[in-house]
Write a structure and sequence with these properties.
With about 475 residues, the chain is mainly alpha-helical. Helices cover about 70% and strands about 0% of the residues. Helix 13 packs antiparallel against helix 14. The protein is globular.
Length: about 475
């Protein structure tokens, strides 16, 4: 049997088990077997019917073959995502490190971001107007997992290459999600598989997960992130998860300890590695208050990005270049005011966050305040005009706020940065569970998990209770030009 025929037997027929697990089919099945179900439920220990139906799906040969094909797609997409990230890193290093050194500067001069911003804005605007998919979704709208399109892959890649290495205050995660989903569909067409709705959804999610795992270095983050982005469970997921998450975070203090009290001696997965100091009252109180402030601040940064998106929609080329130039001007003003590198405001902040965590005391109070103000403004402008993701700039802003407030009585640098990153990312992404998992893995210890959870939940609730501001307008083509299809 050829690979195309095998694919048709697996992914092409995957619509059958997925359709059989739809809510309407489940309801009919429950009604038909109600009498037998009542007898079964009377026996303690019986599993729910959903477990039986899940096992039925997993036993289907076509579904098992689809899993194998998704594993193959994961290998191919991961290779592509890895080399795409390598290309972004090499371009960033060439533009912001090698070229200034070759011209005789230790760090980029204060004016360095301005010409780069003009080039970035011009190229992204042309991609938006000329390429299918318009370079990917607008970052101010948050992360999106659906709508994978192979036609959008060239535009997404070009817009990301024109934005991220040239100084856009955005991360690579959103382009990777779009590229991963699009490349998975390219592979589907290469083997001449039928393009069904179920196979498109399955392969798009598999490709996006493989790509996003590359940047975060962990498949667990990608799985949880895509589950929340895809809206699995709808609003009920957050209604149930937020109280459970908050209760678990507060309850964890009982076991991890509080102040001089060492906590309860319970069985755990601790393998004996050295731990940071035990949390105390100051860590919890200040982290909660900081989460409220960061939630509100990041929320208005995102709202500013939506306003910028509406501004750009009025005249794509001119206004995209103006927003990019203004973001570059923020990096320039930061360098003039502080005497530090403009790269600390420009770019995603991933490398600068690592330096901040390693040498927090190398930053003065004035530098921290300046980087929060200028990077926050540049972040808002880039969210509405250029192409990239919102994750890493929000993590940096939260980490910088944690370091700034760490001298407060009872608040340490480690819990301050951890809580700040969780609060800022949860406010930017509106994905509290994903942000908790991501920050816990980044921090690398379990002792700060309570403040991470509390900060993420408090910031998320604060953000949701604030006015949501204007929506992002639909794309309108320039006069005399037909609009390109969306991604």
């Amino acid at each position: 049997m050829g690979i195309g025929a095998l694919w048709r037997d697996s992914v092409g027929n995957l619509a059958l088990p997925l359709a059989e697990s739809s809510p309407s089919r489940l309801r009919r099945s429950v009604i038909a077997e109600q009498k037998r179900g009542e007898a079964a439920e009377a026996v303690p220990g019986n599993q729910p019917q959903e477990a039986d139906q899940l096992r039925d799906i997993l036993r289907r040969p076509e579904y098992l073959r689809a899993l194998v094909f998704c594993a193959v797609i994961g290998i191919l997409v991961s290779f592509a995502a890895f080399w795409f990230l390598v290309l972004l890193h090499e371009m960033e290093s060439l533009i912001w490190v090698d070229w200034p050194h070759d011209l005789g500067w230790t760090t980029p001069p204060w004016w360095w971001p301005l010409p780069l911003a003009l080039v970035s804005g011009a190229v992204v605007a042309l991609v938006v107007l000329r390429f299918p998919g318009r370079g990917g979704h607008i970052p101010a709208g948050g992360l999106h997992a659906g709508g994978a399109s192979k036609a959008a892959v060239p535009g997404v890649a070009l817009a990301a290459l024109a934005s991220l290495p040239l100084g856009a205050v955005l991360g690579p995660e959103a382009p990777l999600i779009a590229l991963g989903g699009g490349l998975a569909l390219v592979f589907r067409d290469l083997v001449r598989a039928p393009a069904t709705e179920s196979s498109t959804a399955l392969l798009g999610a598999a490709g996006a997960a493989a790509a996003i795992s590359t940047i975060f270095g962990n498949p667990l983050v990608a799985a949880v992130l895509l589950m929340e982005v895809a809206g699995v469970g709808g609003p009920q997921l957050f209604v149930v998860m937020l109280p459970a998450l908050l209760a678990g975070g507060v309850g964890a203090i009982v076991f991890t300890g509080f102040g001089h009290w060492t906590g309860l001696d319970a069985e755990s997965l601790n393998i004996g590695l050295p731990a940071p100091p035990t949390l105390d009252l100051g860590d919890v109180v200040w982290s909660t208050l900081m989460a409220v402030v960061l939630g509100a601040a990041v929320h208005w940064i995102i709202m500013g990005g939506r306003v910028a998106a509406r501004f750009v929609a009025g005249h794509v080329v001119r206004n995209t270049m103006l927003c990019a130039l203004a973001a570059g001007g923020c990096a320039t003003l930061y360098a003039v005011v502080t005497g530090r590198s403009p790269a600390e405001v420009a770019l995603s902040g991933q490398a600068t966050l690592t330096d901040l965590a390693a040498h927090p005391h190398a930053w003065s109070v004035g530098s921290l305040v300046a980087v929060l103000v200028f990077k926050g403004i540049a972040y808002s402008l880039c969210l509405g005009s250029l192409r990239g993701g919102p994750v890493f700039p929000s993590l940096f802003l939260g980490g910088a706020m944690g370091v700034l407030l760490s001298p407060l009585p009872g608040l340490g640098v480690v819990p301050g940065m951890a809580a700040g990153m969780a609060a800022a990312s949860a406010a930017a992404l509106r994905l509290p569970v994903s942000c908790v998992v991501l920050v816990v893995l980044m921090v690398g210890n379990s002792e700060t998990v309570p403040v991470i959870v509390i900060a993420a939940v408090v910031a998320f609730v604060t953000t949701e209770l604030l006015p949501q501001g204007p929506g992002i307008p639909p794309f309108s083509a320039q006069r005399g030009r037909a609009p390109r299809p969306g991604s």
